[in-house]
Design brief:
The protein is of the alpha/beta class and 290 residues long. It has one domain: TIM Barrel (Alpha-Beta Barrel), CATH 3.20.20. The strands form three sheets. It has an eight-stranded parallel barrel, surrounded by five helices. It has a two-stranded antiparallel ribbon with strand order 1-2. A two-stranded antiparallel ribbon has the order 3-4. The termini are far apart.
Length: 290
Amino acid sequence: MSTTFQLDTATSRANPTPQPMKRLTVPKIRARKTDGQEGEPLVMLTAYTARQAQLLDAHCDMLLVGDSLGQVIYGLPSTIPVTLDMMAAHAAAVVRGSYHAVVVVDLPFGAYEQSKEQAFASASKLLKESNAAAVKLEGGVAMAETVAFLSARGIPVMGHVGLTPQAVNSLGGYAARGRSDAEAAKIIGDAKALDEAGAFAIVLEGVVEPIAIAATAAVACPTIGIGASPRCDGQVLVTEDMLGMFERVPRFVKRYEDLASVISKAAETYAAEVRARSFPGPDQTYQPKD
């Protein structure tokens, strides 16, 4: 959908006027990989709020409303407790805050695995309530029938194989996948099954590099790496990780900024000025008119 109207900025800091620009579409993302070759790599970052989306949108091809919000926003120990309602609310905010990137929203654990019909009900709820463009789900061969079912009914699906956080309990942790021959073959087989089922892109997470390269070459749709390889067709990171908002981040994350220190320092300075009664000052208070 093209957002070419001007938003009213007079009453809300949440609505800066966007530049008129046509939003990218799922077919355009899929078409970036032609005859097995990707042109310019696809850029994807996570977003959970309208303001975050506004800041990231112009620089990204896709914004992912990931179920990682369970840990990043809500302080949960994993993604397992995340609900459909949580995903719908945050996805709607991200759509409102963006006008360029394709917005993809995660189907949370327990919302799609039972049957393809359950997956359709959950996916349609998310898209109707948020106006996002596509959903993402985890799993390979086991989810191929579901991906085909959703795709045939007008719901674009991004796949996710390798290290799948929703399956952390069965995987036994967050270690990289694909180190054994059997596991490597499974990852490539999972990617091929999703591709053949109609996934428009596939996230390869925490996959040893040679297997990520092989999986990328084995599928016609773009692959999006996270802890995989620069030879994937695109990359995604959790925005808060790459901005340095947490003390501990995965090995595959590059910190592009140290916002945690910036925020802490600003809060420290504010607190000191409040206690010293130097804030608010004349510039921040209202005086009687002459």
